[in-house]
Structures are given as C-alpha cells and as structure tokens.
Write a structure and sequence with these properties.
With 351 residues, the protein is an alpha+beta fold. It is built from 8 helices and 22 strands. Strands 8, 9, 10, 13, 14 and 17 form a 6-stranded antiparallel beta sheet that branches. The protein has a 4-stranded mixed beta sheet with strand order 3-4-7-5, with no helix packed on it. The longest helix is centred in the last third of the chain and has 19 residues. The structure holds flavin-adenine dinucleotide.
C-alpha cells in the first residue's frame, strides 16, 4: 500500500509530466486518472515545440505514424497534432517557425519513411467532419442542382453516400475512394472517368500565413492525380460541390456496383496504399506489371498483389525501404521489357 506522501508525490509527477521514468512518447489526452484522481497534465514538455500547450486538441510526441496509414508503414512524427478547430490550426501556423509541416488525411495514398516525419504533422481526423444539408437551386435550363458543403476531414465515401440520400448525382463514382475530402482534392482523386476537380465548386483553406482563403474552381488547375494551387496551397478545411438532381435508386445501384467490383478486384482486406503507379497514356499500370509476370514479386514483407498488380501490399512487417526497393524493381523491369517509364502515384512523406 502507498502511504499518503507517496500518493501525493505520484499525483504531482503525473500532473507535471516530469517523472523520471516519463516516456518520450507523451500523450496529452485529458483527463487521465491516476490513483483515483483526474490528472490535467502540464503541457510544457518540449524544448523544440514550447507552444504546444496552446493547442486545445490532442498532441502526441514521437508518435509512430504507421497506424495512421492504410499500408501500416511509417516511423514517428516529432509532433502529431489533432487540432480541435480552426484556431488550433492558426496557432500551429503562427508558432511553428521554421519547423516543416505535413498534413495527413486518411493516409490512404502515402508512403511514410521508416525514419518518420520531422517537424509538425497535422491530422484532420477529429475535426472538420460536418456535412451541411444541400442547398437546392434551379438552373436556367430548368434542371435542379444543389450545392453540398463538407469539412475536409469527412471521408469521401460518406460524402458520396450522403449526396445519394438527397438524390444528388455527380460524385457516386468516387464512392470507393477511401480517403478524406481534403486528400481527394489535393490528389484530384478519380474513378470511372470522374475526377474530384470536375465537381468541386470551391474550397476553403488556411494559407501558410494563417489567413482563411476561399478559392473557386476556376482558380485551380487539375491534372491526373494532382491539383495545382495558385500559391502552393495550405490546409484545406472545407469545400463545396455542385451536383445535379438524379434518380436515387439509379445512383444507389451504381455505387453498389462500384463497391462490389472493387472488392472483387482490389486487395481491400490487406494493408495497401491504393494504386502505386499512374496509368501510362493509353494503358494501365496494373495490366503492364501483370503482363511481364511481376504479380507476387516481393521484397521483404512488401509484395505485388496477386489480385491487382498496381497494388503493393504489406504482408506483415514491410518497411518503407522494402516498398521503395520493390517499386524500383518494378520500374526497372517494366522499362527493360516495355520501354515505358512508370511514374509513382503515391505521395512520399518524410525520410
Ligand atoms: C484501396 C484503395 C483504393 C484507392 N482507390 C483510388 C481510386 O480509385 N482513385 C484515386 O484517385 N485514388 C485511390 N486511392 C488513393 C487514395 O485513397 C486517394 O488519393 C485519396 O484521395 C487520398 O486521401 P487521403 O485523405 O487518404 O490523403 P492522404 O493519403 O492522407 O494524403 C494525400 C495528400 O493530400 C494531402 N492532404 C490531405 N488532406 C489535406 C488537407 N486537408 N489539406 C491539405 N493537404 C491535404 C497530404 O499532405 C498528401 O500530400 C485508393 C487508395 C486505397 C488504399
């Protein structure tokens, strides 16, 4: 049994976060209970990031990023912040100084290095999750359309299903894309011939100077899996899409067909980060890789999926180095046998 003096000491250590055995991986999730007492830990714990105590959301230091990615790979972030709101974002931008910044969506198109990401990583997983009721209007041609507004942290699949509830057509082809709205805009994610940029009306972002800025579709340009921002881009917080009124049953049936096709053709039950390579002009990367017999090729625990040759799967303990090595092997084999240079679609982050 602990005597009262020891209990007081332990509770004091928990409050201050200065215990001798205090772990580097400091989770600032509040409150914690230590010996029956609620602890609101002191947030002054980093020399590099002395401003972290100002953040109202969750702050994790030296947090391994693998669990935040769909391929389950990636070393630690110096600081991973789950902002609570726009003020948190502005606080980060105001105080981060020269520290690098990386925005994490749902992590479904990323390869994060084994050494992790230096500086500040922001995840919008816990905020900007609202989808507003669509606002209907009639166009000159008599067709009813609607504007639907959603936060950047909303999953693209939720948004498409929500639009379908209101019989809105235009984004149903994107139902199987597993990332967030913010990630879909940055990547100009697309499927079945429809790209995010085609239906986007405008987006609101926080610029790196902390200003709230709304950009209309016309101010952006869209390429294959890439959106180009006039001033380099900031942190997208919400966006509006303009959709047309359609027939709910048809929209629903189409989404069901897309989802069932994906589950038959993509390795959805094993960790992966979607299509690794961009499709070359007039062909698909998957067909090319399969045609030269690379399905099943592995480096360590990273392997070319048997189900879809443009997917690299993590069979358990794959590292970013394994994936990189496999990517280089595929590129060099494809080049040797077909003369085509495969370009990567996945986003590399960190070391
Ligand atoms: C099984 C599977 C199937 C897939 N199918 C498709 C498909 O059919 N078509 C397709 O295009 N893609 C597909 N993808 C890839 C991926 O889902 C998309 O690219 C998706 O849009 C990425 O969104 P995300 O939230 O996961 O972004 P992340 O992967 O987390 O980030 C991607 C990029 O966006 C940036 N970013 C994310 N959020 C923000 C924000 N709020 N503000 C500023 N920058 C931000 C990140 O910094 C990074 O540069 C698939 C992936 C998987 C795993």
């Amino acid at each position: 049994m602990l005597n009262e003096a020891w209990k007081r000491r332990l509770i004091h250590i928990a409050h201050s976060g200065n215990g001798r055995d205090y772990n580097l991986k400091t989770k600032m999730e509040y409150p914690k209970t230590v010996l029956g007492q609620k602890i609101h830990q002191s947030k002054t714990m980093s020399y590099s990031f002395p401003w972290l105590y100002k953040i109202r959301g969750t702050v994790l230091q030296n947090e391994i990023l693998a669990p935040y990615t769909s391929i389950q790979i990636g070393g630690p972030a110096d600081v991973l912040i789950f902002p609570e709101d726009i003020h948190d974002l502005q606080t980060i931008l105001k105080h981060k100084g020269s520290q690098p910044l990386f925005i994490l969506g749902e992590g479904t198109n990323l390869l994060i290095g084994d050494q992790g990401i230096r500086g500040v990583v922001i995840s919008l997983k816990n905020c900007f999750k609202e989808i507003k009721r669509p606002l209907f209007f009639r166009k000159k041609d008599g067709n009813r359309r609607a504007v639907i507004k959603a936060g950047a942290g909303v999953k693209m699949s939720y948004l498409t299903k929500n639009a379908a509830r209101y019989s809105l057509t235009g984004i149903e082809h994107l139902v199987g894309i597993p990332g967030s709205l913010g990630g879909a805009i940055v990547m100009n994610a697309g499927a079945e011939g429809i790209e995010t940029g085609q239906v986007l009306r405008n987006l609101t972002q926080i610029t790196l100077d902390g200003e709230v800025q709304t950009l209309k579709r016309e101010q952006l340009s869209f390429e294959y899996r890439k959106t180009i921002f006039p001033d380099g881009g900031g942190i997208i917080i919400e966006a509006e899409f303009e959709l047309e009124e359609g027939k709910r049953i048809e929209i629903q049936n189409l989404m069901d067909r897309h989802l069932s096709r994906r589950s038959k053709t993509q390795p959805l039950t094993v960790p992966n980060s979607g299509s690794v390579f961009k499709n070359p002009e007039g062909d698909t990367a998957g067909r090319l890789i399969e045609s030269i017999g690379l399905k099943g090729l592995s480096v360590g625990d990273a392997g070319v999926s048997i189900k879809h040759a443009n997917f690299i799967i993590n069979k358990g303990a794959a590292t970013a180095q394994d994936v990189n090595c496999l990517i280089e092997n595929i590129q060099s084999e494809v080049k040797k046998k077909t003369g085509i240079d495969l370009q990567t679609e996945i986003v590399y982050a960190g070391k």
